[in-house]
Design brief:
This protein is of the alpha+beta class. The chain has two domains: about 110 residues, Aminotransferase class 4, branched-chain amino acid transferase, N-terminal domain (D-amino Acid Aminotransferase, Chain A, domain 1); about 150 residues, D-amino Acid Aminotransferase, subunit A, domain 2 (D-amino Acid Aminotransferase, Chain A, domain 2). The protein contains seven helices and 13 strands. The strands form two sheets. Strands 5, 6, 7, 8, 9, 10, 11, 12 and 13 form a nine-stranded mixed β-sheet that branches. Strand 11 and strand 12 form a beta hairpin. The longest helix is centred in the first third of the chain and has 15 residues.
C-alpha cells in the first residue's frame, strides 16, 4: 500500500521514471513500531551515502519522518522508502540530480526464530561499482531467492565466486567462534545491513573472509536484518547444527529487544 509520495501517483507519465527503466535509485526497507522506525538514523545514514555516490539529491527526510509518525498505525509494519532520479528523458546518462520518492507499507509478519538454512547453488559475482548499495536492480537476489521454491528451509546461504560466505538471500550472517563475533567480508559483493551496522556500534564484531569450513566449526550462527532483527540458525541442511542458546546470542538478542522496546 502506498503511504505517500513526492509526486502524483496517478500521473501516468511517472511510470516512465529512471527507477523503473534503469534502476537509477536506491531503497531502504524499515521496521516501523508505534509510528517510529527503531533504526531510522542508520537507514538515513546509508541512504545518504548511497545517494551521494549516485549523485542524486536526498529527499526531505524530516518530512518523510513526519509522515511516518502521522500516517502509520500503532501496530508493527514494514516500510519501504524508494528514492529515484527525477528525469523523464530516455538514455542512460543522468541529466539531473533531483529526486522523487515513494513510501509504501505492508503488515509486519513475524517469522520463525530458530532457522534452518539451505545452500544456494548460484553465486554472487563481484560488483565493485555497486558494492554495499541497496540499488534498485536486485535481479541476482531475485534469481537466488527463486531457489527457495520447493525447499524445506527458511533461507539460503549465499557464496561468491571464490567460495566465500557472503550473506543469505535477504540477511547478513553473524558467526560466533571462540567467544568472538565475526561477519563476512563483503568488499566485492553483498550489502551490510543497517542492523549489522548497529550491532557493530554495540559489540566488537570482526570482519573476515569466511568459508564453509569456518561456518561448520562455529559455536553459533545468527542472521540479521532491519525487519526481523537477529535470529539464531539451528541448522544448515546437510551440513551441521548449532547452539541456539549461546551466551553471545542471548546478549545480542537482549540488546535488540532493548532497542525495539525503547520506541
Amino acid at each position: 500500500m502506498i503511504l505517500a509520495a513526492s509526486f502524483d501517483a496517478n500521473n501516468e507519465s511517472m511510470w516512465e521514471n529512471r527507477g523503473l527503466m534503469y534502476g537509477d535509485g536506491v531503497f531502504e526497507t524499515m521496521r516501523c513500531i508505534d509510528h517510529k522506525v527503531p533504526l531510522w538514523l542508520w537507514h538515513l545514514g546509508r541512504l545518504q551515502q548511497s545517494l551521494d555516490y549516485l549523485q542524486i539529491d536526498a529527499p526531505d527526510c524530516r518530512a518523510i519522518k513526519q509522515i511516518i509518525s502521522e500516517q502509520t498505525n500503532k501496530s508493527q509494519s514494514v516500510l519501504r522508502l524508494t528514492v529515484f532520479r527525477d528525469q523523464q528523458k530516455r538514455g542512460y546518462q543522468p541529466l539531473s540530480r533531483a529526486s522523487h520518492w515513494l513510501l509504501s507499507h505492508n503488515p509486519f509478519q513475524a517469522q520463525p526464530q530458530a532457522q534452518t538454512l539451505g545452500m544456494a547453488t548460484q553465486r554472487l559475482s563481484p560488483q565493485p561499482l555497486l558494492k554495499g548499495f541497496k540499488h534498485l536492480n536486485r535481479l541476482p537476489q531475485v534469481l537466488i531467492a527463486n531457489e527457495l521454491a520447493g525447499q524445506d528451509v527458511d533461507d539460503l546461504l549465499v557464496l561468491n565466486q571464490q567460495g566465500d560466505v557472503i550473506e543469505t538471500t535477504c540477511q547478513n550472517i553473524i558467526v560466533i567462534k571462540n567467544q568472538q563475533i565475526f561477519t563476512p567480508n563483503m568488499k566485492d559483493s553483498g550489502v551490510e545491513g543497517v542492523a549489522l551496522t548497529w550491532l557493530k556500534q554495540k559489540l566488537p564484531v570482526k570482519t573476515k573472509c569466511l568459508q564453509l569450513h569456518d561456518i561448520a566449526h562455529a559455536e553459533a550462527v545468527m542472521t540479521a536484518n532491519a525487519v526481523h532483527g537477529f535470529r539464531p540458525v539451528k541448522q544448515i541442511k546437510s551440513m551441521t547444527t548449532f547452539q541456539i542458546n549461546h551466551p553471545i546470542c542471548d546478549r545480542i538478542d537482549t540488546l535488540w529487544q532493548q532497542l525495539i522496546n525503547s520506541v
